[in-house]
Amino acid sequence: xxxxxxxxxxxxxxxxxxxxxxxxxxxxxxxxxxxxxxxxxxxxxxxxxxxxxxxxxxxxxxxxxxxxxxxxxxxxxxxxxxxxxxxxxxxxxxxxxxxxxxxxxxxxxxxxxxxxxxxxxxxxxxxxxxxxxxxxxxxxxxxxxxxxxx
Amino acid sequence: xxxxxxxxxxxxxxxxxxxxxxxxxxxxxxxxxxxxxxxxxxxxxxxxxxxxxxxxxxxxxxxxxxxxxxxxxxxxxxxxxxxxxxxxxxxxxxxxxxxxxxxxxxxxxxxxxxxxxxxxxxxxxxxxxxxxxxxxxxxxxxxxxxxxxxxxxxxxxxxxxxxxxxxxxxxxxxxxxxxxxxxxxxxxxxxxxxxxxxxxxxxxxxxxxxxxxxxxxxxxxxxxxxxxxxxxxxxxxxxxxxxxxxxxxxxxxxxxxxxxxxxxxxxxxxxxxxxxxxxxxxxxxxxxxxxxxxxxxxxxxxxxxxxxxxxxxxxxxxxxxxxxxxxx
Lengths: 150, 328
What we know:
The complex is a heterodimer.
Chain A (H helix, E strand, L loop, with lengths): L33 H22 L6 H21 L7 H27 L10 H10 L14
Helix pairs in contact in A: 1-2
Chain B lengths: L1 H14 L6 H7 L15 H36 L1 H7 L5 H26 L3 H31 L14 H13 L29 H8 L8 H7 L6 H4 L5 H4 L8 H34 L8 H25 L3
Helix pairs in contact in B: 1-2, 3-4, 3-12, 3-13, 5-6, 5-13, 6-12, 12-13
């Protein structure tokens, strides 16, 4: 029964530190300057150009790490500035970070598992799939599968 | 205790549109309830925070939803790295890059729409929402061109990937031409009615072509008809005209199981595309409500929450683009 005791609902709540804008400010939430938003978009475009350019440079295994690294930076920019997480309630950030961590957890365990069974896997089609492909898809390149290596 | 009960009842009536109960409001606070404030919330701040918390929980489920597909992608890519580095080159980097820029810019206009809603600039907010909607439409149009091109070339999942894409067309043309056989020079049999008569083919009766092709392919389909023709020194003319491209099937460098790349490609970009369409519907709803004048500095929660959804769609694409289009 908090209504009866609440006298001042607080128009700014936890965001009292923000104010003084000439063109008026919202009752709730955070007002992000236009320059910040445009700057974020510009950074995202620049990073997109960089990630496309990096494709054509061969650094072996590191290509994917660079690509994912840039994507993570871009995602962080979107989340922090476009999605207001930099100024939002920390609990919302906690939800987001937690769900991303759980995806990473699932991903890393599946990757470890795949790595573990690497020697047991066919390179190419298993014989049964090969037969099916030959029958159903006459144009198919038949897999040059290596022998099963236990 | 009785004053509290009266206050609560006042709230209930207010929510049902009975505005005669203003006396009850005075019992529990100096502020009067704005029309957008639901009766079960204490303040606009609480309502706003609850809405955003709910939206973030929904976005968490979205991240987990796509997360499963990202795991599938990782496992497939580890199993068949050669497939991914090969098949990635069938995707158009320009189209993918333009789509990335379109989504980034539409995210910018969405964030600006939220800002203009916060500052009460209705016209600017509506323009930004329209621009965001245009971004969604533009993205889907580019995606449509990418998809139709690939489907036409049978760059799809499953066994269709291994069916030559020009089969149906070629046969139709062949039967059409068979009705009106072109005047053949004396002593020359036309083996392929779609091609100009070639003396080399003269000794091979056209009826035998079907029998020869499978035989030629006998050791596990190593050679396509075109390659066999090339090996035998027969000019087919197919490569120069490019009328029926079936490039991937005739590429001997194509690794087995290449169709798996397109399976995961359509699964992930397709699910993302569904989200873009859903975002477009949401934007239409926001524009409709915005035109009705629902949003302003006091109340803009739907614009803000819709913006969060639109940004997560952008965020997923930020990962999809390098993972599919930019494999070295």
